[in-house]
Every structure is written in structure tokens, then in C-alpha cells.
Amino acid sequence: MLSGLPPLTLALLLAAGIALDLLLGETRRWHPLVGFGRLANGLERRLNMGRWRIARGTLAWMLAVLPLTAGAAWLCRLEGAAGLALHACLLYLCLGLRSLRDHTLPIHDALAGGDLARARWLTSRIVSRDTADAGKTDLAKAGAESLLENGNDAVFGTLFWFLVGGAAGALLFRLANTLDAMWGYRNARFNLFGRVAARIDDVLNYLPARLTALSYALLSPGGRLRALRCWRAQAPAWSSPNAGPVMASGAGALGISLGGPAIYEGQVEMRPALGTGPAPGAGDIRRAWRLVFHSTLLWVACALALGAILHLTGAQHA
Q: What's the domain count of the chain?
């Protein structure tokens, strides 16, 4: 482990960070990622101009991510309880499990209660597609897709890199993922400047995304083979190499159809089909949340089991 911590200790800290996230949720004021977003915007305004846009974007990425990651690694080297607590607290700040629940289940409640206007407003807060004229099926689809995809970005990718590198690994992943969300667009402004940010996120997400897709398939309520078939057949057609496996497997696991048409900036975009079965309804948002939550419990159980095995094996050889 790059963190230098024993595997069992790291697994226990992972469980503690998740518990803190579920108990406390997002900090309502002064969230570190909000401050990081302001830093990233400032760097982009100053560097995204003139020639050498790819090099400038690379420099901006390094200035935004590396000092913070190095600082986290240095702080977590504190001995004793203080260093361990910092690992758990930084993981908590990087996680977004409860945030996923708090932002998506109200959409389910609004749709179930027939409040379409509120459902549209709530959905507009978490997706970039247009929701002003969205129907119930469109909103349920957006909510389910957001849960499945962000389950990887906000939860499982962070947990994977925490197990690899402790709090510094989790922070590195979360900051890189945030910069991809801010700069990783193929448009005139960001196509060159954000290219390195997008590629780094693709690399960091490659293994976590496939472990997430596998988790969704394993925990499918009756559709493991269906989820695996959807992953294999449909993921290559999706524009993102990592979102494709996650969303295809998740849609197959739930037995619903995702993808298809969505409106962005007034234009209809035809996206590849994902999953198989009926169009999603309000209840499928709650089902998607349960799939993400149960997958999180699976990751915790696997981390603790592996940590215990390695601990016992090491003790026998000592």
C-alpha cells in the first residue's frame, strides 16, 4: 500500500470515512471542493489563452492538484491517532455517497407525488441536460443515470484510490475528477486546455469503473448475466470509456433502458441505448440508490475481509 498503512488499518479507516459521510453528509459551508473549484476557475482564466493550450492546461492541472495532494500526504504522516484521523476525515470530505442520496431521492419523492415542476427543478441541479420541458420518464432516466455514473465518480473511484494511497490517493482522484468535470469538454474553449485533465481522469478511473460495473452486476436483483451482457455489448458505443461500462452494467442490473435522446443547450442528442427492459419510472431512482449503497457495503466487506486475511497471514509469518 502506497499509504504505508497496514491493510486492515486502511480498511477500518475506509469504513470510518464512509460512516462519517453517511452521518454528516456534505458540509453546508466552506466545502473544500467548492474552494478547489474557485482555484481551478482562477487558474483557467489566467492560463487558458494564446498558444500552447495543451501545455498550459497541463501546468494548470499540476498547480491545482499536486501541491494539495502532497500536502495531504505530508499531514497524514503524523504519528498516532492524529494521522489516522486525518485519513478518515479527508476520505469523508472526498466522498459523495450521502450527497447522491440527498440530491436524487427528492426527485423520486417529487415524481411519486406528482409534483413535476419540483422534479424538474431538482433534476436541473444535478445534470447538465435541459429539464424545462422534461416528462416523468425523462426525469426518472436522468436521476437513475446520475446515480449510477456518479456512484463511480463520487464513491467507488474515491474508495479505490484510498485503498491504494490512503487519503492522498483519494484526494488525488477526487481533484482530478473535479477538473475533468470542469475542463474536460470538447468545445472551442476546453478542447485543448482540458485535454490532459480528461485523459488523466480516464486513466485514474479505468480500474475503478470496471470494478464498479462488476459490483453492480454482482448485486443485480436477478439479472447478473443480463448486466454483464449489457456491459459487454453496449459500453463500447458510449462516448466515455469509463462511464459506458458503469452505466450499461447498472442499467442491465436494474432491468431498465437508459440512454437515448436527451436535450443539451436546446439540441437533441441521440445517445446509445443502455440496459434492456422498460423505460425507468420514479421507483427506479430509489432502486438505483439501493444498488449504489449495497455496492458500497460490498466494497467495505471485501476491504475488511482482505485486510483481516493479510493481517493474519502477516502475523503467522512474523
A: 1
